[in-house]
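Exam review. A common question shows you a sequence with its C-alpha cells and asks you to describe the fold in words. Practice with the pair below. Do the first one on your own.
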Amino acid sequence: MKRNLITLFFLAFICFEVKSQTALTGSQAYDNAQNLRAKARKFYDKDNPTKADCDSGLAILNTAVNFLDKPEVIELAQDNLYLKGRKSDVYYDMILCYALSKQYDKALDIFDKMGNEGNYYRIDFYETDSLFIPMRSNPRFQSALSRLKLRQALWKDESLKTPYKENISDAEKTAGLSLLWSQAKYNFVNFDHAAIDWDKTYLDYLPLVKNTTSTAQYYKVLQQFYAQLKDGHTNVYVPKELSAEFYTRPPFRTELIEGRVFVTQVFSDSLKTLGITPGTEVLSIDDIPVITYGKTHVAPYQSSSTPQDLDVRTYTYALLAGPATKTLHLQLRSSTGKTWQQDIARTGYHDVKNALPSLEYKRIGQIGYLTVNNFEDEKIMKQFDSLFTQIAATKGLIIDIRNNGGGSSGIGYHIISSLTNKPFKGSYSKVLRYMPTIAGIQWHENMPGEWDANGKQYYDKPVVVLISARTFSAAEDFTVAFDYMKRGQLIGQTTGGSTGQPFGFSLPGGGSARVCGKHDAYPNGKEFVGVGIAPNVVITKTIKDLWKGTDAALEKALQLLNK
C-alpha cells in the first residue's frame, strides 16, 4: 500500500510538471521546484522520521531533480540565478533524507554528484552537524569534502582572514590590497561606470599601503581605493576594533541644501539646549569651512554611485563621523543670523531618542500617509497587512521612502503586491561570466522576475511615492517596479542610483569588504544604476522650506491626490 501511495504522489507531481510546461517562466519553474521541496519536507522534516517517510520524501525530491534537469528548465536557469540555485538545495535535501534514514552510501553518492557539478553549498554543515558523524570517517566523504573545501577556499579567502593588530605586517597589507583588486577585477559589474584603468590604480596604491604606519591608516587607504570604483554597493569596512575611531558621530544629522550644510534632525534634547536645532547652519568643522572639510576629509573615502549619493554620504552620513575620543569644534549659525562656536562630543549622550522607526502610518484628511524607512525588518510586511483595512478606507495613498536605504527587495514587493491586481515585474539584471580560455568576459543576463499580486487585498486608489537621494538599494528596486507598472507618480528628488547583489569577503587585520556582483536595470533595460531614478515631479529642497518647517514634496503629493 505504501508503494502505491508513493507511486500516486509521483504521478501527481509529474502531472503538475507537464501542466506547468505551458509557456513556463523562470519564476514558475522556481516556484515548482520550491513547492516540490516543501511537499517532500512534510514527510521527513519531523521527529524520528521512518525510512518509509524518507523514501516518500526522496521520491518527490527525485522528481524535483528530473524537473530541474529538463533542457528547457536548464535554459531558463541561465537567466534566473534563483532558479539556478535550487539544484543545490534539492541535493542538500536528498543528502539530509538519506542520512536521516541511515542510507549513508546513497548520501555519499549525492555528495559526490554535488561536488562534481561544482557546488560547495553548506559544506560547513556537513562537517559539523551530528547527523553526518557516521559519514565522516568514510574515505569517500573525506576526499569529497577536502576537494570542496579547497574549491571554497579560493573564494572565502580564510587564509587572509588574519586578526587585528595595531599595525599589521607589510605582507598582510599587500595581500589585502591585492585581494580587493582581484575580487573586483573578476566580479565587479560596473567598470563601465567607474571608467578607470583598474590595474594601473592597483599599482598606484601599492606604495600607499606600504607607507602606512598603522592598521587604521591602512584601512583609510583601502576605503579610498574602493571609492575609485564609484559604486555604493562596493565598500571596505574597518575591523570592529576600529569602529569607534571611524564611525562615532553625535546624535544629529546634517544635509547639503542649496550648497550649504544645515542640521535637519536632532535626537538629543541636550543638544537642543545648546542651540543645535533643525535649521541651524554648520559653517566650519575644526576651523575648516564645511564644504572644504567635506571634500577633503570625507568625500575621498566614500563609495558612491552618483553625485547625489556622494553628497548624501559626505554631508549627511559621514560628515561628523570620527574618533569617539575627539571633540568636534563647530562654527554654527542660527536661522536668525546669530553665529557662535561650539565644541560637540561625538559620544556620551544619555538622552538619545530613537531614530526613524521602520514603518509609520497616519491619515491626513482623506489621504493615507505611509512612511517606510527601511526594508530590513520582515515585520514590516505584517505591519503593512495589519494596516491595510485602514489604508483601504482612504481615497489616495502616499508612500514615503525618502529615508529608505534599502534591505530586502521582497519586503518592498510585498507592499506593491497589494497595489495591483496583476503580476508585476522586478528588475532586469546581469552578472559577469568569466571566460579564461579567451581572456575575457561575457554578460550572463537574468530576465526580470515576475511577482504575483497579493490576491487577498487590493488597493485600487491613486498612489504617489516620495523619493530622494537617500532612496537607495532595495528602495530603488521598489521604485523601479512601481514606476514600470505605471501605478502612480514619483515626487521629490532623483534617487541614489545604486542597487545590486554584493558579496562579502574578509580582509587581513579583521576587516571586510564587499563587491557588487549584479547589475540591475528596469525590466526594459533602462539604466538607473549610476544615474538614479528621476521623479515625475521634481521638488527641490530649499533653505526657506527648512526654516519654515515646510515639507514641499508631501504638500505636492497631497495636492495631487486631493484633486
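Now try the second one, then compare your answer with the model answer below.
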Amino acid sequence: KHIPNLCRIPEVSIYTEQETSSKPLKIGVLLSGGQAPGGHNVVIGLFDALRVFNPKTRLFGFIKGPLGLTRGLYKDLDISVIYDYYNMGGF
C-alpha cells in the first residue's frame, strides 16, 4: 500500500528452461543512487538480452528513479532511444 501504482502489476515468476514461454513481456528498469560508469550499457545489455528472448518484449525506463516508479512515470525504451546511448558511459 506504500506504493499504490504497484498494486496492479502482476507477479513475475521464474521457471526452468523447459517451462518458459516466448510470450512478449513488459519489463521496467529503474536505476537509482546517482551517476555510475557504464550505466547506459547495462540497460543496453538488458535490452539486447530481452530482444533475444522475444523481439516483441518491451523495456520501460522509470523517469527520476524511485519517484518515477511510485508515480508511474516511464519511457518506452525502444531501439531508436536505446542506441543513442550506446557506449556513452554512465547515466
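Model answer, second protein: The chain has one domain: 4-85. Residues 10 and 75 are 19 Å apart (CA to CA). Full marks require stating both points clearly.
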